[in-house]
Amino acid sequence: MSLKTVCASTASFSATQLVFAAASVLLCSGCVPRSESDVVVYSALDEEFASPILAAFDRSTDNEIGVIGKFDIESTKTVGLANQLISEADAPRCDLFWNNEIMHTVRLQKLGILESHDWQVPATWPQDMIASDGTWCGFAARARVLLINTDLLPNIDDRPTRVNELADPKWAQKCAMARPLFGTTATHFAVLREIMGRDAALELLQQIHDNAVVLSGNKQVAQAVSSGKVAWGLTDTDDAIIEKDLGYPVEIIYPDQQPDQPGTLRIPNTLAVLKGSPHPIAAGKLADFLMTPEIEDRLAMGRSSQLPISKDSNFPPAVLPNEPVRWMRVDFEAAADDWDAWAKTLADLFAN
């Protein structure tokens, strides 16, 4: 069997399409359908990064297990895939959810539609990278960093070092952040709400709304910095390293590194097996294949320069600084509490 991909918007993807895709794999391979002959993956990680890894799993099983991958093409794909999994909860089509962040994975956990799995990770795995009930596990993270335009801010002492400087009037309209309604920016401020308290987080967001340039996404923030439209911005390491690799005058700062500061937030990819999935054994085998230092190294070596969680990883990504990073201590499950009401509040605040 070979890797079969299904690329469609969430709205247009149907049960008929998935059945047809699965049937095509089986017919092309000449195999007789078996209960665990395929594993269906919904992936929010971009196809260019995830597809070669899923194909490697396909090859590693000596044609015993094929992979059907669905890669959404919408910009809000994480939300869309999560909502699709919720809509399919009574009759799951997906076996394994590969999310490129975490908050919506926790949302699915809290709705009770994920299955506990015996994750093959060391006992020293960070507690914030594995679910309290074993329903998801995090790996291969991105960090939330400040990207600085060095032409506009040549003096190191003049550069920002904290996330909350987005609200500082001295940077009015000279700094940028993505609208915190989707993806890692939404996750970031849900985490800050848990750390700071709801009122303090909302006050900070209001100040940022009034002070910073608010853009549609992290990529747009990174490009605004590299082009000199703003002096600096809050973005993700994968977007930041692209601008640096392209030769733009930018530097990456890991924020909030002082002892009295919260540290830099890292947001992992997550894997989760769906409760009642059609192929739970195959899903578990694929999950174990992905949750390894070797796969983290592949993601670290790729263009997105993802940050391995495993201490057995052998490839330090180019985006990491030379000095050790103080990571923020996070309770993602607590940060996801009351998500719908919090998301509505932010949507109202950032409506314009």
Automatic annotation (TrEMBL):
Signal peptide: 1-21
Listed InterPro entries: Ferric-bd
Entry annotated with the keyword Methyltransferase: no
Domain of life where this protein originates: Bacteria
Keyword annotations from UniProtKB, A to Z: Signal
UniProt protein name: Iron transporter
Family matches, as Gene3D superfamilies: Periplasmic binding protein-like II
Entries under PANTHER family matching the protein: SLL0237 PROTEIN (PTHR30006:SF24), THIAMINE-BINDING PERIPLASMIC PROTEIN-RELATED (PTHR30006)
